[in-house]
Amino acid sequence: MFRNVKLLSWLVVILLVTNLATIATVFYHTHQETIAQKGEPETDAPGDRRTRFFKEQLNLSDDQLEPFREANRRFNRHARGISQTMSQLRVDMLDELFADSASRDNLQQIARKVGMQHEDLKMATCDFYLELKSICNDQQRMQLATIFQSLLNSDERVKLPGRQHRKGRPQ
Predict the structure, then answer these.
(1) What's 158's DSSP letter?
(2) Are 90 and 110 in contact (CB under 8 A)?
(3) Cβ neighbours of 132 (radius 10 Å)
């Protein structure tokens, strides 16, 4: 009898440890997924979603839609290239910072390049807005201005529709 109690006790312990490990794994992976989703830049959303959003919000005609798509594609290509360059410059800056003989002059030069790229990105955004504005009629221009104001939040990341999350998962 004592042997059966001891065996059952060990079985309960093994099941308890297995359950705790399973629960910990689920929490860990859920947390990692949440971190990965937060780390994704929201500006990398597909251009088709942005096109559809603006078409619906501005009530774009078929004649307006194709020039808008072209402007959107040009902006996406240009902005993506600038963002990739800026990412590489950040890596270069970190490499320089961590080098044994880090040079303040080199760091200043990299910082200037980052600043120039940032300016290029802002001007590309302005050019994109002006091109969209030229496609729109007066009523659509007012709505476009409202949309652009609401799309940019404090950390200057574009928030597109459908990107809100509830408890770390897309809705």
Answers:
(1) B
(2) no
(3) 23
For residue range 109-132, what is the model confidence (pLDDT) as tens digits? 999 999 999 999 999 988 999 999
147, two tokens: 């949309």
Amino acid at 62: D
pLDDT tens digit string along 28-47?
A: 888 777 776 665 444 334 45
Q: How many other C-beta atoms can be found within 10 angstroms of the C-beta atom of residue 31?
A: 11
How much is the pLDDT for 10? Answer: 85
The runs of H, that is alpha helices, within 40-103 are 47-58, 62-98
Rounded-to-integer distance, Cα 132 and Cα 68, Å: 6
Q: Which of 139, 88, 91 is nearest to 117 (CA)?
A: 88
Helix and strand numbers (H, E) in the chain are 5, 2
Q: How far apart are CA 76 and CA 125, in angstroms?
A: 10
